[in-house]
Amino acid sequence: MKKLVNGAVPPSVVLVSPGAERSAAERSDAKRSLAPGETKTMPDPEVVVRAQRRQYTAEYKKRILAEADSAKEPGAVGAMLRREGLYSSHLTHWRQQRDLALAPQRRGPKPKHDPLSEQVRKLELQNGQLTQRLARAELIIDVQKKVSLLLGIPMAPTDSGGSNL
Description:
mainly alpha
């Protein structure tokens, strides 16, 4: 049984305009939405693919600090910061750097290799070896003393107080 639409039987044939009889590829073609003579360009995305940290040279920092320090009017520093796209924390950090002669500091973890650590390690190894040799020499001397006492060999007098000058 057929449904009645507004009291009439719907037509079994749908009339289609000639432009609507396009294939799927033709319908999805982007050129059809352009006016004649126009070329399609890729849109400029608003979000940068990967943000980069801004880096400022020492000269730029000095110039901005001089400008901020010479500002006399109220709001002049804020206007300068807005114009340059900076924050007040930049000024604070740069003033601290200026006090330390604008020495750039390396970011990230400190290097694990200390240049003096190799020398300290060698000296500690040498100290340990010399301590062992001293212990062996003292042991040998003690044995020699005991042997000389057993055999009755007189030992040369040792100078325990200092030198005989």
